[in-house]
Specification:
534 residues; alpha+beta; Methylamine Dehydrogenase, Chain H; Immunoglobulin-like; 4 domains; five-stranded mixed β-sheet; rod-shaped
Length: 534
């Protein structure tokens, strides 16, 4: 038994002298009949048995009988066999094979290889039958096409046939429920001929947004599908290839990953310290101690950016080393060591939300205690956008004024820094959360190093504020005490001068502790005026 390369399930099976077929998913079954003698029994002699059955990539079917070396020929989806000349076949026991170019060859026991002109013998055997079309061509160049969730594949075929014959290009699929198909036709006309140019555009039917069983639905949408485009009317007189058969693999293409634009050369630091004021515990509280961490050399050089600039990483989608596109899906990021001294520029309202958007705080409240991985807390399996009003969860007036924590290369949201440490380093992990973007788990990491910070730019902390306040109070207190002492001393010097002046003028003056009380206020004023004049 042999399965055939066809969009509709097809197979051949045989006994010693008959070939049976099953085409079109089992709806077309029967026994192959030899055209020249209208019999299903193969062989030139009663002793002949089927020795070998071959099928080429183009759909040729070749049957070799032994010991007569008789050859029979047919094609996939045909019900008849034609008998070929065996003049070029060696008389000794041998085997047949198709090479990579689809040419038939025979090889003997002594490894002698001989080509067999299959096309020439087929044309001679079917003459004078004429093909119902002039030319069939297609643009398929790959054995397998990998089709991701958000992408589409375009395949084209052209058929040139006489105006007075009906013909068209059939499109067959091994699984219509997995693929959306769109057919675009364009006709061209010549003298007595017309050409049908048919383009087939396909994409996955999977809709994974908002489903409860995300993993199961995702796995069910990934499969291998065979597509076939071929003329409606064809026979063995037509030139090969007379069909385009391609394999489409729905799923994550091999080697698909994210790459962040970053420097290729730098001097990376082995470790650094995160201050406790920048660290956040799992419960959202500020850490009570600083943290010494290692820089992950595997994520490459950190991206340098000014601490006053907003930041948005440039992320591309790659297949191996081949750039596919700029990644334009919604994604989230987190700092792997718990740094929290950054925020977002846009609020939920500015991002266009009609209901409260998902946030890290909200998502962490909805998971079990044992689930610690960040990508398990929030990802494509539970992402819900906020661009429709959620009637089941009424929002408050201030809900949309909260920071919007989802990023996109085409959105308004960016990262803003809230740090006072010079040369601050962050290590981020990025995860695509849009479930309709890819079958792949798209996640990558990168580093950021802030530049441009000066000590004068650093905002004051609580300790610094207290220190400055105490210093100011002490300074004012010393100034006040100094002023009181100076003023008192200055007054005593004035009073002593007035007392001496009274004694020189023969005016009795008080002595001892009664000096100050005994001075007449008018006399004091007169003396001060005189002293100032001198």
């Amino acid at each position: 038994m042999m399965f055939l390369n066809s969009a509709e399930s097809a197979l051949l099976f045989w006994n010693s002298n008959q070939i049976y077929y099953s085409y079109q998913n089992g709806f077309d079954v029967g026994t192959m009949v030899v055209l020249s003698c209208n019999t299903s029994v193969l062989g030139s002699t009663p002793d002949d048995i089927i020795h070998q059955v071959l099928v080429s990539d183009h759909g040729d079917i070749v049957v070799l009988m032994y010991p007569s070396n008789t050859l029979y020929y047919s094609r996939i989806n045909q019900h008849h066999l034609i008998k070929l000349s065996a003049n070029e076949i060696p008389g000794v026991q041998h085997l047949l094979f198709f090479d990579s170019l689809g040419r038939l060859n025979s090889i003997t026991n002594n490894s002698s290889v001989s080509p067999y002109p299959l096309a020439l013998h087929v044309a001679g055997s079917v003459y004078p039958e004429v093909c119902k079309y002039r030319h069939f061509d297609h643009n398929s160049t790959a054995d397998v096409y990998y089709l991701d969730l958000a992408r589409q594949l375009s395949l084209s075929a052209s058929l040139t046939y006489p105006l007075y014959y009906f013909n068209t290009i059939k499109v067959l699929s091994s699984s219509d429920k997995l693929l959306k198909q769109q057919v675009v036709d364009k006709f061209e006309y010549y003298q007595g001929w017309q050409t049908l140019n048919r383009t087939l555009i396909i994409k996955s039917r999977a809709s994974l947004y908002g489903v409860d069983d995300y993993t199961q639905q995702k796995e069910g949408a990934m499969a291998d599908v065979i597509l076939e485009m071929k003329p409606e009317m064809t026979d063995m007189s037509c030139k090969l290839p007379d069909a385009m058969t391609v394999h489409v693999s729905l799923g994550c293409p091999p080697g698909r990953h994210l790459q962040v634009h970053k420097p290729t050369q730098c001097q990376m630091r082995a470790n650094y310290t995160i201050p406790r004021s920048a660290l956040q515990n799992e419960d959202g509280s500020v850490s009570t101690s600083s943290k010494e961490v290692l820089y992950n050399q595997d994520i490459g050089c950190p991206i340098k950016t000014h601490y006053k600039d907003t930041f948005l990483p440039a992320i591309d989608l790659y297949d191996g080393d081949v750039l596919i596109e700029e990644m334009a899906a919604n994604y989230i990021l987190w700092e792997v060591h718990g740094r929290a001294d950054y925020s977002y520029t846009a609020t939920m309202q500015q991002a266009g939300c009609q209901s409260r958007a998902q946030t890290w705080e909200k998502m962490q409240q909805s998971v079990s205690d044992g689930e610690q991985a960040q990508e398990g807390i929030w990802g494509p399996h539970n992402y819900r956008h906020c661009f429709f009003e959620n009637m089941t969860t009424p929002r408050g007036d201030d809900d949309l004024l909260q920071p919007y924590e989802i990023l996109n290369s085409t959105g308004v949201n960016k990262i803003v820094w809230d740090t006072w440490r010079n040369d601050s380093i962050y290590q981020f992990t990025v995860l695509v959360i849009d479930p309709q973007y890819s079958f792949c788990h798209l996640q990558t990491s990168f580093g950021v190093s802030l530049i441009g910070l000066n000590p004068s730019d650093a905002p004051t902390t609580t300790i610094m504020r207290l220190s400055i306040g105490l210093f100011a109070i002490l300074t004012l207190s010393l100034a006040f005490v100094s002023y009181i002492i100076f003023r008192r001393k200055h007054i005593e010097e004035h009073e002593l001068y007035f007392a001496q002046d009274d004694e020189e003028n023969g005016e009795p003056g008080p002595s001892g502790d009664d000096v100050a009380p005994s001075i007449n206020i008018f006399n004091v004023a007169r003396k001060r005026h005189k002293w100032a004049a001198e």
